[in-house]
Amino acid sequence: MPQVDSVSMRGVARSMKRAVNGALDHWRYRSLVHSQVFPNPLRTILVVCKGNICRSPLVEAYLKHQVEKHGLPITVESAGLETSYGKTAHPLAQLVGTQCGLLLSQHATQQLHKEQVERADMIVVMEWRQRRRVLKLYPQAKQKVFLLRQFYDQSVREVADPYSGTLEDFQTCFSMIKQACDVLVMQMLPPGKQA
């Protein structure tokens, strides 16, 4: 088979994959929207990612900052699905946090546990597989497990793990986190205070 045909076949395959992923994202979003109700009252938010060293500490710190800024009586915690207790936040997550006025230097990782899940009114995850894993471990939590980006762009795309990436990757990750959290916080505000 000529080289050109091989190249064009890869292009067709990539286009088909994008189309399938787009349709899957749309279906996932619609199924989430129709199956979930925003918790009311909302007193505790639990943020979960894989290792509790990059994404969930940034979300936790930013949400805590926003909750305090708006005077909301909400507790924010974070945990990891695959971690051990006491690790610090990733150095680049700490740097991005510092650049944005957030302090992650006191962060210590913790493994997700049953008491956190039961205490939380909302559990926010970064990826579909994390959502599936939380629901496999704690099926009773189905109505309160949300994908972070569903609050932002309705694409229900994932917030990619920047763990092995560059500072720019962490900044891009935090930009997604900030946009999604800002929309989430607006939904938490009492009527009349929402922008």
Question: How many H/I helices?
Answer: 6
Give Rg in angstroms.
18 Å
Mean pLDDT: 88
CATH-defined fold name of the largest domain: Rossmann fold
SSE arrangement:
Elements: H1 3-35, E1 44-49, H2 55-69, E2 75-80, H3 91-99, H4 114-119, E3 122-125, H5 128-137, E4 145-147, H6 167-188
Parallel strand pairs: 1-2, 1-3, 3-4
Helix pairs in contact: 2-6, 3-6
Features:
single chain; 195 residues; alpha/beta; Rossmann fold; four-stranded parallel sheet; 6 helices; 4 strands; 49% helix; globular
Task: Explain this structure.
It is a single chain. With 195 residues, the protein is an alpha/beta fold. The protein has 2 domains: 35 residues; 150 residues, Rossmann fold, CATH 3.40.50. Helices cover 49% and strands 10% of the residues. Strands 2-1-3-4 form a 4-stranded parallel β-sheet, with helices on both faces. Strand 1, helix 2 and strand 2 form a beta-alpha-beta unit. The N and C termini lie far apart (59 Å). The model has no long low-confidence stretch (mean pLDDT 88).
Summary of the model, kept short:
This protein has about 200 residues and is of the alpha/beta class. It has helices at about 5-35, 55-70, 90-100, 115-120, 130-135, 165-190, and strands at about 45-50, 75-80, 120-125, 145.
